Amino acid sequence: MTEAQRPATDFQIPDDLSGITADQYRASMRHYPAGVTVVTLRSATGPVGFTATSFASLSLDPPLVSFNIAHTSSSLTALRAADSVVIHFLGEHQHDLAKRFARTADERFTDRSLWTTLDTGEPVLHGTPIWLRTTIRQLIPIGDHTFVVGLVTRVHDNTDEKPAAAPLLYYNGSYYRPTALND
Q1: Which of 70, 52, 51, 37 is nearest to 108 (CA)?
Q2: Pairing of strands 37-43, 174-176
Q3: Judging by beta carbons within 10 Å of its beta carbon (0-12, 13-18, 19+), is residue 91 exposed, middle or buried?
Q4: By C-alpha distance, which of 140, 3, 6 is closest to 64?
Q5: What is the pLDDT of residues 131-142, one digit of tens each?
Q6: Which of 39, 90, 136, 182 is placed for a possible disulfide with 94 were both Cys, Cβ 3.0 to 4.6 Å?
Q7: Helix intervals (H) in 47-169
Q8: What is the pLDDT of residues 168-181, one digit of tens each?
Q9: How far, in Å, CA of 183 to CA of 166, rounded?
Q10: Span 34-173 CATH architecture
């Protein structure tokens, strides 16, 4: 079987990682800017949510997206049981929201003025430029994370508002707004 024919579930980690440490890898990834999202879902015990900077678009037809969640996340059990999630693209003005959803789970939904629920039950955050409702298609454990693939079933786009919010970025351990978009 050639490398191109190998199924995605047949992932092998080589024995020799050339001495790369977790700290070295983490330090290098801090220098790659990423858009900031908050993923929310409903669970049997109430709303669940977390900040994720690993969001990616996977496919246009069908509309598929992905993100990762650490195996140590307090939200993982609820995510595994969920059928759907809402992925919120945060605007430059929402760094406090990003920080809120990076805190301990019991602090994330305490301010009821920040969110409501969709008719399908998922929590949705107020004021985000874009949010996507997705049904979970695949959960793939890989390394110390689970790779989540979702099918987009609804798009809510507030970017027509004037002025449109620039995206919130995460880089080198801090939140930033892309100034070039506003020049």
Answers
A1: 51
A2: unpaired
A3: buried
A4: 140
A5: 999 999 999 999
A6: 90
A7: 76-81, 95-100
A8: 888 777 777 776 54
A9: 11
A10: Roll (2.30)
